[in-house]
Write a structure and sequence with these properties.
CATH topology: Rossmann fold
Structural class: alpha/beta
Bound molecules: nicotinamide-adenine-dinucleotide
Oligomer: single chain
Shape: globular
Mean pLDDT: 97
Helix content: 40-55%
Distance between the termini: 30 Å
CATH architecture: 3-Layer(aba) Sandwich
Length: about 250
């Protein structure tokens, strides 16, 4: 779907692969200039190369979203390079599957990246969008931001936190032209879930858990992000949009 984003500028964190890369490619295909960001420079540069090969416009900026000064520099780069910031997809995140999230170090790292990182990004992006009088932010939460997960306290808490931050931002900036929404993916085939998918038994279980009988693709999340950013969603704000093949409908 081409939303006609020519002249618009989009920023995507966690864009070296998976959902972030799919969103960056989709924004570019719709005409936006894209600021691709990640801690993984090689993957981020590959996303930029793919965009340029398809005739789009993109730059890479290294950014650890848990570092406030790096986030400031990221948003400043978007403005210095392209002059504005219309859309932001705050997508960087970790899921330390198998790790004991009750351990201080694992807990702290999850909070820093998955939750504080989203807040730092939103805060900086909103400054630019407030000055423009318009903008759209989409945060990547998860179905674990809406329902419980008995194995992962940190992942579950951070993703619930992202939904809370999204609702906060939506209310805070509702009269200022900035819409803030979240996407809540179910299980999606990306580098994050690849280790689980490598086990055929696990793959069968996960496929079977989803009412549609299959896992989601990164492009299916990108489609939701672009719609939320577009004027087609002009009255949608504060919404955690579930994209999960029916998992949370059960
Ligand atoms: N894949 C799924 O099933 C699924 C389901 C629900 C939610 N999500 C969420 O979607 C988002 C994207 O995940 P994905 O599935 O594409 O996996 P992914 O691992 O491919 O993407 C995550 C990206 O975030 C980057 N990243 C990690 N720490 C960072 C940091 N400190 N600063 C900046 N970038 C950092 C990684 O390098 C990676 O490129 C995450 O927030 C994840 O929690 C994924």
């Amino acid at each position: 779907m081409d939303y006609g984003f020519d002249g618009k500028v989009a920023l995507v964190t966690g864009a070296s692969g998976g959902i972030g890369r799919a969103t960056a490619l989709a924004f570019a295909a719709s005409g936006a200039a894209v600021v691709v960001s990640d801690v993984n420079e090689a993957g981020g540069q590959e996303t930029v190369s793919q965009i340029m090969a398809a005739g789009g416009k993109a730059i890479f900026q290294h950014c650890d979203v848990a570092d406030t000064s790096a986030v400031k520099a990221l948003v400043a780069r978007a403005v210095s390079e392209f002059g504005r910031l219309d859309f932001a997809h705050n997508n960087a995140g970790i899921n330390l599957m198998g790790a004991d999230e009750y351990q201080d170090e694992v807990w702290d790292r999850s909070i820093a990246i998955n939750l504080s990182g989203v807040m730092y990004c939103m805060r900086e992006e909103a400054e630019v969008m407030l000055a423009q009088g318009k903008g759209a932010i989409v945060n990547t939460a998860s179905i674990n931001g809406l329902i419980g997960n008995g194995r992962q306290p940190a992942y579950t808490a951070t993703k619930h936190g992202v939904v809370g931050l999204t609702r906060h931002g939506a209310l805070r900036w509702a009269k200022s032209g900035i819409r803030v929404n979240a996407v809540c993916p179910g299980v999606i085939e990306t580098p994050m879930t690849a280790p689980m998918m490598a086990n055929p038994e696990m793959r069968k279980v996960l496929d079977g858990m989803t009412p549609m009988g299959r896992l989601g693709q990164a492009e299916e999340i990108a489609g939701a992000v672009l719609w939320l950013c577009s004027d087609q969603a002009s009255f949608v704000t504060g919404h955690p949009l579930v994209v999960d093949g029916g998992t949370t409908a059960i």
